[in-house]
């Protein structure tokens, strides 16, 4: 294997900066993740964009915040600004389980080691920089900053926090996927505009003195939401705020949002329109090495990189709008897709990787099968305020054709160096059920599904029904479980036709708002009847900027302001989670006693009865039913 020159990566050390012949840096990025130079890692994308605009850029990855702060000083002071990100995950979600237990590993660190970033990393890093270099502006971004840009509930402290701009002291925040605003910001600073004076760029947020007049830019209208102080006193006002923020985040012609915080005004400029195909290609076609920085070689593999190094991300965004999910809150509900040419170019790069053995692990995106899907008439999308394009029903204006995706699967399949290309991302199964999605006139969904099941399943296919209770699913913004049954039937028929045995792996969530304990017992019984012993299960975690987080904290739905019951105590949450494991001997007695206490012995029987006994009971039941039918027919005569 030929060693690549160190200058193929963005510099991490003073020595690497000097190797490029630089004696000063324009921008320094501080990241909570190890530096992996790959388009799936935000720090690499932002770094490469800054480089592409002609700036001298370096990265400080996972700096030590507990010593003499030498990591923050080693590259000196940048000419224009520091950029700060906690990494690819919110640092608190990265660190803690739903039960607030500290995790023992970190997928974005060499060797999977925990402890290389602080809690609330964006705030900690920014405060250090402001102390060391008070005259240098700090720009924050990434998912942690993005989803904490306004007053938000923090599950780990169990209280409302103001905008992360207020707590961190940063000069500006870029929310969402940052390529478009970042390029605008870079062009302005290159012209001599100080970063901390920029006010007219879309998709940024900043604080200004409450006494200062708001600037008039780009014909934006302004909507004011309840102040942070009012939210602290009134949970309903906080819930009502969320609806405004979510609606404005998903509009093409959005309003500017303002919120009072102490003696300041938080300003959130409207987002950019979703990136076009050409813009997406530019971002993905930057000169990534597609590998971790060589400095990590002796520290062990980086788990998140190992998982995606032979995968291809074909699109961004998700129009599902699920209540518990942050994808649409950060990436937007409109789909931004790459061109086929860009995707195939990446395939050509992957097959040259020295460790490539012929298998692509994922042709996907946030939801595997939303590639190139958009409104048939974009003027309708322009006026739309709905947070989801497929809940409660699929929008009649949504083009859900799977043909472009099927064609890419076939082309990747035909590549001479590719033995198999799998779909590892979760498939949005409801788009493939004709009873739910009426837009399958030409049968393209069936062609896609046949291609998927016969050519691209790596042993098991992941789907996410999330629950079986229709009431809970409505709160989740997910379709009725009956559509999962129909999908499973369709999936099983294709498998039988081709003599395949590739199990479905369904994902479920316990203790989600709107779910009661009996609903979880029923979920366990229904999935048992379908032959599942559940593996991919999780307890609900309230994360900032989601409908479910607002319900958890406020007790009401932000769109109706009507109360919704939620499991909140550790015991309530654990009780719900236990039902997932009905098949384990250590849970059987607890389940029997618990369901008798809930006055649901019927569910205890369904869950704890052996499969053999259940089959016998079914035969007896069918036999009794047949006898009753005969008697009925006899008396009719």
Automatic annotation (TrEMBL):
GO MF annotation, one: catalytic activity
Name the UniProt record assigns to this protein: Putative radical SAM protein YgiQ
Key word 4Fe-4S present: yes
Domain Radical SAM core: 304-584
Cofactors, names only: [4Fe-4S] cluster
Domain of life: Bacteria
Protein's UniProt keywords contain Metal-binding: yes
Protein family according to the UniProt entry: Belongs to the UPF0313 family.
Keywords: 4Fe-4S, Iron, Iron-sulfur, Metal-binding, S-adenosyl-L-methionine
InterPro entries in the cross-refs: Elp3/MiaA/NifB-like_rSAM, Methylthiotransferase_CS, rSAM, rSAM_horseshoe, UPF0313, UPF0313_N
Cofactor note: Binds 1 [4Fe-4S] cluster. The cluster is coordinated with 3 cysteines and an exchangeable S-adenosyl-L-methionine.
Binding, [4Fe-4S] cluster: 318, 322, 325
């Amino acid at each position: 294997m030929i060693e690549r020159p160190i200058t193929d990566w963005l510099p991490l050390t003073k020595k690497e900066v000097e190797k490029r012949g630089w004696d000063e840096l324009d921008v320094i990025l501080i990241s909570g993740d190890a530096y992996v130079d790959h388009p799936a890692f935000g720090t690499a994308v932002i770094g490469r964009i800054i480089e592409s605009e002609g700036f001298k850029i370096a990265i400080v990855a996972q700096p030590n915040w507990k010593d003499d702060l030498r990591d923050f000083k080693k590259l000196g002071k940048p000419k224009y600004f520091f950029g700060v990100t906690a990494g690819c995950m919110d640092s608190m979600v990265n660190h803690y389980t739903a039960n607030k237990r500290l995790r023992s590993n970190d997928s974005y660190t060499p060797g999977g080691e925990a402890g290389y970033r602080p809690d609330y990393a964006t705030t900690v890093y920014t405060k250090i920089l402001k102390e060391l270099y008070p005259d240098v502006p700090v720009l924050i971004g990434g998912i942690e900053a993005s989803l904490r840009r306004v007053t938000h509930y923090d599950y780990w402290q169990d209280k409302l926090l103001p905008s992360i701009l207020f707590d961190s002291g940063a000069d500006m925040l870029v929310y969402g996927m940052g390529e478009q605003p970042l390029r605008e910001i870079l062009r302005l600073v290159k012209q001599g505009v100080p970063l901390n004076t920029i006010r007219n760029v879309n998709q940024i947020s900043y604080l200004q003195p409450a006494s200062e007049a708001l600037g008039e830019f780009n014909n934006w209208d302004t909507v004011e939401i309840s102040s942070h102080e009012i939210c602290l006193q009134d949970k309903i006002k906080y819930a009502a705020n969320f609806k405004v923020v979510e609606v404005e985040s998903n509009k093409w012609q959005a309003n500017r949002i303002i919120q009072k915080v102490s003696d300041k005004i938080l300003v959130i400029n409207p987002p950019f329109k979703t990136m076009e195909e050409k813009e997406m290609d530019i971002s993905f076609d930057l000169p990534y090495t597609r590998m971790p920085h060589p400095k990590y070689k002796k520290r062990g593999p980086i788990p998140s990189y190992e998982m995606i190094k032979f995968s291809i991300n074909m699109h961004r965004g998700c129009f599902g709008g699920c209540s518990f999910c942050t994808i649409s809150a950060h990436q937007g509900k409109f789909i931004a897709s790459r061109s086929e040419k860009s995707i195939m170019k990446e395939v050509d790069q992957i097959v040259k990787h020295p460790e490539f053995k012929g298998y692509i692990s994922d042709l996907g995106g946030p939801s595997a099968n939303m590639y190139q899907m958009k409104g048939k008439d974009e003027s309708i999308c322009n006026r739309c305020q709905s947070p989801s394009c497929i809940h409660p029903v699929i929008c009649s204006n949504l083009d859900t054709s799977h043909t472009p995706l099927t064609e890419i699967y076939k082309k990747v399949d035909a590549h001479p160096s590719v033995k198999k290309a799998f779909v590892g991302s979760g498939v949005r199964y409801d788009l493939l059920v004709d009873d739910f999605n009426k837009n399958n006139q030409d049968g393209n969904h069936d062609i896609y599904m046949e291609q998927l099941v016969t050519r691209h399943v790596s042993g098991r296919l992941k789907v996410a029904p999330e629950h079986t209770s229709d009431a809970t699913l409505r709160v989740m913004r997910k379709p009725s479980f009956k559509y999962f049954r129909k999908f499973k039937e369709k999936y099983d028929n294709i498998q039988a036709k081709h003599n395949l045995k590739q199990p479905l792996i369904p994902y479920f969530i316990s203790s989600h708002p709107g779910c009661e304990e009996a609903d979880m017992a029923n979920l366990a019984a229904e999935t048992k009847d379908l032959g599942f012993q559940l593996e991919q299960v999780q307890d609900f975690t309230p994360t900032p900027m989601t409908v479910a987080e607002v319900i958890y904290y406020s007790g009401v739905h932000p769109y109706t302001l009507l109360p919704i019951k939620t499991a909140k105590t550790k015991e309530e949450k654990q009780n719900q989670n236990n039902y997932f494991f009905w098949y384990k001997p250590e849970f059987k007695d607890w389940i029997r006693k618990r369901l008798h206490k809930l006055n649901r012995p019927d569910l205890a029987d369904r869950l704890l009865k052996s499969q053999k006994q259940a089959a016998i009971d079914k035969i007896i039941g069918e036999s009794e039913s047949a006898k009753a039918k005969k008697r009925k027919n006899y008396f009719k005569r």
